[in-house]
Amino acid sequence: MLIFKEIEALKKEIKKSKQSGKRIGFVPTMGNLHEGHLSLLRKCADENDVSIVSIYVNPTQFGPKEDLDKYPRTLEMDLELAKGAGADLVFLPDNSIMYRENFSTYVTEEKISKPMCGKRRPDHFRGVATVVAKLFNIVEPDTAYFGQKDAQQALLIKKMASDLNFNIKIEVLPTVREKNGLAMSSRNNYLTSDEREKASIIYKALLEAEKAFKNGEKNASKLKDLVKNIVSKEKMLKIDYIDIRSTEDLEPLEKIDRESLLAVSASIRDVHLIDNVVLSKVKSYE
Ligand code: AMP
Q: What is the pLDDT of residue 282?
């Protein structure tokens, strides 16, 4: 496994692989790797000749009061895990390389990035789109892998890739969970084991709503209430939003007549957790 901190050296290595006809797969991450990241990397290694992972805590996607400084950084462990999951190249840029002095060009998506997490974090998706566009231009992968846990982010990247004509296939892989159902996240590190146990109610609520949907409930307000009632039982959790929106463009839905995303954001103390399930067509919609 080769490690690169400089853009030009990485590009040179990738060019060599491309010239010999190799398929390039890419997994962008912020490090502190867990099974969620590793599932993406393993799939990437499976489907490509060269697997590239980037580890970079991107400052432009953090708001002024967010956890940029305390975001968990575990580089040594990450490198071991990445190697074990099949990474061939690791890109480890620092801020001076990604955002040179006088950097002033950003990528702004104007629809998908607005609701849900975009409300609480107004510049977050601009930072995500910008850094991913930069990484795509540097790595030029055939395929890039993202997690369904961050469903809004995955949709945004697909939209950006399509709108800006990136010739890159975007694959979105299922959410990897703790045994109790809690979606794995680097931010779970901020929680005690008791809090993690309590937070697992979010997924339990999503599963109940999914069950009700499969049993015929197509009214979005009723499904959202169902989730709200379950999650509210855990007093420690503060609900930020519960939303049902079309998976295509995140348009809000009242009657679920197409594939939709049921997404929840809730916090314990100042730790924000997100999770979702996709409500997809079982037989025919009424
Ligand atoms: P992050 O390091 O949080 O920026 O995440 C890097 C990639 O891993 C993103 O595409 C995430 O959606 C994905 N990811 C994070 N957690 C999970 C998880 N529990 N299951 C699947 N993918 C995940």
A: 55
Tokens, residue 249:
């463009």
Is position 272 annotated as part of the catalytic site? Answer: no
- The strand pair at 237-246 and 260-268 is best described as antiparallel
Rounded CA gap, 59 and 67, in Å?
10
Q: Is 112 close to ligand 1, i.e. is its CB under 6 Å away? A: no
Ligand 1 neighbour 86 (Cβ under 6 A): no
Select from 111, 114, 108, 148 the least CA-distant residue to 128. Answer: 108
> Which of 218, 212, 205, 211 is closest to 258 using CA atoms?
218
Q: Which residues touch 54 (CB under 8 Å, ≥6 apart)?
A: 26, 27, 28, 29, 90, 91, 92, 93, 135, 139
Residue 147 gets which letter from DSSP? E
Tell me, using a 6 A CB cutoff, whether residue 127 lines ligand 1. no
Ligand 1 atom 17: residue of nearest CA: 36
Its pTM surpasses 0.90: yes
From 30, 33, 35, 40, give the residue whose CB has the most ligand 1 atoms within 8 Å, as the site to mutate. Answer: 40
CA angle 136, 141, 144 (to 5 degrees): 80
pLDDT in tens, 46-83: 999 999 999 999 999 999 999 999 999 999 999 999 99
257: which residues sit within 8 A by CB, 6+ positions away? 218, 285
Q: Which amino acid is at 94?
A: D
Q: From the CB of 58, is ligand 1 less than 6 Å away?
A: no
Q: Say how far apart CA 192 and CA 242 lie, in whole Å.
A: 24
Q: What percent of the chain has pLDDT over 70?
A: 98
Candidate list 34, 37, 124, 272, residue with the active-site label: 37
